[in-house]
Amino acid sequence: MDKIYLDNAATTPLSEEVIDAMVSVMKVTYGNPSSTHSFGQEAKILIENVRREVAEYLHVSPSEIIFTSCGTESNNMIIKSCVDHLGVERIITSPMEHKCVAETVLDMKKRRGVEVVYLRPDHKGDFDLTKLEEVLKNSEKKTLVSLMHANNEIGNLLDIKKVGEMCRENNALFHSDTVQSMAHMDLDFSQIPVDFASCSAHKFHGPKGSGFAFIRKASGLKGIITGGPQERTLRAGTENVCGIVGLGKALELSLKNMNEYASHIREIKNYTISRIKEEIEGVKFNGRSAEEETSLYTVLSVLLPFKDPMIGLKLDMKGIAISQGSACSSGASKPSMVMLMLLDEEEMQHTTPLRVSFSHLTTKKEIDALIDALKEISEGVKIENTNFEHR
Ligand code: PLP
Hints:
This protein is an alpha/beta fold. The protein has two domains: 16-256, Type I PLP-dependent aspartate aminotransferase-like (Major domain) (Aspartate Aminotransferase, domain 2, 3-Layer(aba) Sandwich), CATH 3.40.640.10; 258-389, Aspartate Aminotransferase, domain 1. Helix content is 42%, strand content 12%. It contains twelve helices and twelve strands. It has helices at residues 16-27, 38-58, 71-86, 99-112, 129-137, 160-169, 241-256, 258-279, 311-317, 337-342, 345-350, 364-390, and strands at 4-5, 65-68, 90-93, 115-118, 143-146, 173-176, 196-200, 211-215, 284-285, 299-304, 320-321, 352-357. It has a seven-stranded mixed beta sheet with strand order 2-8-7-6-5-3-4, sandwiched between helices. α2 (38-58) packs parallel to α7 and α3 (71-86) runs parallel beside α4 (99-112). The longest helix has 27 residues, at 364-390. Bound molecules: pyridoxal-5'-phosphate (PLP). Residues 70-72, 98, 100, 148, 152, 177, 179-180, 200, 211, 326-327 line the site of pyridoxal-5'-phosphate.
């Protein structure tokens, strides 16, 4: 049985070209980039080339890109340093953020006494931006707004240009967790007034353990890891040259093929939507996930019309890897915060959320296998329920 991978929002397989580029660094360019001899300088050049490549993609200056170990580190660095070094006393965020933002914000509340204001989404997962504006205006406290660009569970996209403009008008800083959208969409930070953003290479066929933070030059943000002067003293520690080169190669491939990949994935996503609708009566889609303009094309959040907490395991036994929500919360018996925000109690009791996330490697044949598996599971649940009623 060929295994099927439909969990690309959790992580993506490495591209062959990325592996080759990384192996070459491990074998050949192994110098420490801080060393002044040729081995070190060759490694340094590789890093600076990737920094320029990232900066060009985002339309920013290379000095605004700081390489880190992952999206989690980037988000931690930004939020913690905003509080510790930029005097932020209030954070406006939402209950839909990834755990690495949500927990960091809570930590700042507990340890630094930061006031936290949560914007509540509506049943589609959208925010009322007039409410954000109201909240921005009603305090003199130095404020950071932290709202993600593309939601990792339901794919909803936020208008970060509009939010950034509101933040500028109201003297607030704006951080957006862009981990899911980076390298999948065009992002022009010369036009989008975001102060801080984050990236993780393993979400676009690069390696795990490699990411970056975008830090707007004039912000004055400092790092949280102290030590040597690497990354303009913002992130001490010998650079992960191999990981940075892997990130650079993965970004290069994503940008080169973005249109082709996006149109293939959109076709697969639309195919999935219509097949599920045809075959599973009463199915729904969470948030904006089934809408083309307002959701990230790589994510589809399905609401199955039956309750089956074992669905992930059942699909895995059929060779299909898929998550119910974010990978960080999988295995948790409680519903995710995102689902708690979107579903009412009745839905919670009688439905099962499933996140199907695609890549350019996903095929219609794999989707057909998923649909067959879901039909079989759904029939099984119906039989179980009938037996239970007759007991
Ligand atoms: N932010 C979002 C939206 C994510 O989806 C993830 C990963 O799932 C992260 C942050 C964390 O990134 P990393 O795995 O690189 O720490």
